[in-house]
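Predict the 3D structure for this chain.
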Amino acid sequence: MSRDEIKPLSGKPYFHVVIAKSHVSPRNVLVPSGKMCQKLPYDATIPTVLNCRGKSWDMTYNGQNKFKQFDTTGWRNFVKDNNLKIGDACVFELMENSEEKIVFEVQILRGGFPGIDECEEEPIFRSELSGTGESDSPYVIE
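Done. Predicted structure below.
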């Protein structure tokens, strides 16, 4: 399986997030969805592991905070090591959930159009796109 190949979900609970500025800098904060937080231990700090592409990142889930979230340092390391950018998406599948440990399997879906955000002279979809990609003139796929 290649590094970026997407695997089907196993049927376990999951949540997804499209990476925004607050996820990558300067705050580096990730708050799981409300439905996911309802499944996780309440009012506790739990060691947490994010597994992605054959590697693991240790952090903690801070369930005692008003806004349940992963610790900033651990999440920042995950963002940096996986080169996450605004517009990428992550799917977090809950593989293990106890008072002792939480484990998520994470899949990363890269954002953007192929050839648009890359340093190519002629984007792959140039003939099918109109617009500049700016907020006042978004790309339109014809």
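Helices lie at 21-24, 34-39, 72-81.
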